[in-house]
Task: structure prediction
Amino acid sequence: MTHSSFQQHSHSLSNDGDSTDALEQGAVPDSDEPPPASAYSANANKREKHRKEKRFKGIPASSGIVIGKAVILATEAIAIKDTLIPEDRIDAEIERFAHAVQECTHELHRIVTMANDEAPVAAPILEAQLFILNDPTIAEMIAGRIRKCYHAESAVQEVFDSQQAILRHASDSYLRERAVDLDNVKQRLLNFLTGRNTVTTTQPEGIVITESLTPSDVMLFRKSGMTAFGTETSGITSHAAILARSLGIPSVVGLANICKRISTGSTVIIDGYAGIIIANPLPDTISRYEQRVEDLEHHARKLGKLAHLPSQTSDGRKVHLFANADTPEEIELARASGAEGVGLIRTELQILTHNFVPDEDEQTTFYKELAERAYPLPITLRAFDIGSDKSFGLIANEPNPALGLRGLRFLLKNKAVFMAQLRAILRASCHRNVRLMLPMITTVQEFQKSLQWVEECKAKLKENGEEFDAQMPVGAMIETPAAALIARELGALADFFSIGTNDLTQYTLATDRMNASTTQIYDTFHPAILRLLKMIVDAAHFNNIPVAVCGEFASHAAATELLIGLGIEELSVAPSSLLEVKKRVRKAVFSQTKQLAGESLHCSTGSEVRKFLTSGTN
Ligand code: PEP
Ligand code: MG
Result:
């Protein structure tokens, strides 16, 4: 089976034995120093010198700790020469290419089936590769090259490389991610055509370390025993990172040059809480981490009991815990973890993975299934938030897509798309447990217009004798500074608020949420964000409507007390984080959190806020 562009690095790397290299690039100082060398025998000293402990600092993408063996996977391009074939072999060569497509399609289908069993959230994302593989335009371009007497391998390489080059330079990160998918598809085809064997598995307990991973890689490596991963590329909101969180696979991203600095087979510890990878850990470090793993496991067993306990502070303030879920299976998981409902369903994932908008009936079937799985718990269907980093084929290229036709702006300009979705959501609301949420609002008019269209859809459905919830709540996502500043006015129209802290941070701090070089600036603890949160909560209370947080901040360990203290009544988090958050809610004392939040608002920097919150909770 050939399915990956990865090649395993089994050799030791040139700088690996450089024992003077105390801290690797991107490494962190050891806060808990190992014992001095004199504590070991002379032989042990020698050995330790040989395999010096190295620490690499990245960005925590998915929590958890794993100790295992590193599997370094490099994305190695296959050297393909521009071999020419005689004209009488053209047809046979086109046939050979078609056969490769067929075989690779068969193989990808198997991966999708596997994903359906193991991680349904990944399956539609993986299907994107199937679309690329079977794209008739790409196939025709390749056949065209073969007709010019190039053999299939060079035709595949040429065509895919030119398509990738276009995508790699796209300003849109979603399109850039498609370049990685193109690369994967190209490697699959080339591997098949050249009969080359590639790495398909990692050994059990393997910790995969590589440049970047696509969701299909995460699926596949997990299936073969990957317990954790580290990547050089960044982006905690990338599909692979989101998938890792939902599968509970510890991971660290943004580990600059790590592939060249450790070798396959070395023992590594991946600390998904701190965002650290430790290569060749000293015995002491290993025992410390083993103890932590044991504590965490004990902790997880205890958390299990929490699922059925109420989510409230120790002095009785109720904090509703909802889940962000995208598939029926995730809804099941959320229910099992004691979620009180689903606070965010990113409906645009359906479009992004298929690259077209499903028709009204297809949408209705899908939304109904979600609503039925959750019933009687409420689910919150967010209208398509397409545009910006969530672009797809039908969206025009924009010079600055994050500030362009995104979310509600796109929908209001594409009435047919919006109305079809509104009708589908209304039709799925017949059990009275569906809420509609509108993303990327900046003006009152956008919300008013949407409400007007919701009413038009209701009238149409009534005319057709369709059943729906005439009282279906319609909420506003508050994720732009403008929406926060006019929250009083929006609150007069909306049935609820849900704060999208991912975008609120991006837009308030004028920093791209996907840009690795501005990670330091992207800080939701920034006092500007805290003050906007306070403003939104006040506006919600003024209008007597509930207010939730559904961005990643809702599950941040240091943010729980702050959010409760600010008056947030609902937190919507990944199902895997739910019980951890509940534990913190139950430990909190509402009166104290209010004081903590009040004082945090007076801090002048994000780090001051974080320092204050940490000292306040310890
Ligand atoms: C947010 O912006 O916080 C949010 C929840 O939406 P998304 O991450 O899908 O933009
Ligand atoms: Mg958002």
